[in-house]
Amino acid sequence: MEFVFVVPRTAIFPEFAPHGLSAFGEEFSRERFQRCVEEEGFFVEREYAERTPTLKQIIPYTLVTRGEEILLLQRTKGGGEARLHNKLSIGVGGHVNPVDAIGADGEGAKARLLDPLPAATRREVMEEELIVEGETRLTSIGLLNDDSNAVGAVHVGLVQTLELLGGDARIREVDQLRGDFVPWRELPQQLAGGANFETWSSLLVPHLDQLLSPSTSVADGVREAAEGNVPAAMSREKAASTAQP
């Protein structure tokens, strides 16, 4: 039985649920989202979460970049959910599980779950999907929401960029995933030409100029508070040994 991390919908979107990308800023800061995760988040059975739109499953959705290039992925028929087979994606992501909750703040009834999203990002990107070499810089961008379908209604993406600082990344599970670095400026044209992008990626591709351009104000606005190196050496075994049940 799988347990996934959720936050009540109204805790994230108290008034209305926006469609598409909502960049962190003055109206909804990264710090406010952090408090929301730590104070309101909890784990439930995935089966229950998948049919309960009053809860939002938080999915770290990470764009891996190398200079002017972005990692473009395609899920093969050998792995993943059937609805994603052969679709293009610019994001690496997955559900947050109890193994990612590697600590708690406080004791007893006053204990508060620490933010499990960084550990989930490391697990998905560094240990399950990709082999990443060299230093990296992780930057939180904003939230991605799509309530237009049943799957999107129970998920929300934490959009992040993982910048390779002189290193490289390659696919770990080559029987389940294909991918290569491509110039990110070419993707909007591919999308307009009918390329088969998954839904979340199709919502992000039109914003890549804002997110990844050296002169962007979206990423720079949250970089100072949210960026950091992601240690590739943290193993899944270490995370599991320190996780709270």
Could you explain the architecture of this structure?
The protein has 245 residues and is α+β, with helices and mostly antiparallel strands. It has one domain (3-236): Nucleoside Triphosphate Pyrophosphohydrolase, CATH 3.90.79. Helices cover 28% and strands 31% of the residues. The chain is built from 10 helices and 14 strands.
Brief write-up:
The chain has helices at 9-12, 30-40, 46-49, 117-129, 150-153, 187-192, 199-204, 208-212, 218-226, 236-242, and strands at residues 3-8, 20-23, 42-45, 55-66, 69-75, 88-89, 92-93, 104-105, 112-113, 130-133, 136-145, 155-164, 168-171, 177-183. With 245 residues, it is α+β, with helices and mostly antiparallel strands.
Shape: globular
Q: Supply the number of helical segments.
A: 10
Mean pLDDT: 84
Instruction: Please identify which CATH superfamily we are dealing with.
Output: Nucleoside Triphosphate Pyrophosphohydrolase
The beta-strand count equals 14
CATH architecture term: Alpha-Beta Complex
CATH class: Alpha Beta
Largest sheet entry: 10 strands, mixed
- The separation of the N and C termini measures 13 Å
| CATH level-3 fold name | Nucleoside Triphosphate Pyrophosphohydrolase
Please state the CA-atom Rg, rounded to the nearest Å: 17 Å
**Helix content, binned percent:** 25-40%
β-strand percent reads 25-35%
Q: Can you tell me the number of structural domains?
A: 1
Order of helices and strands: EHEHEHEEEEEEHEEHEEEHHHHH
Detail the poorly predicted runs. Answer: 216-228, 231-245
Structural class: alpha+beta
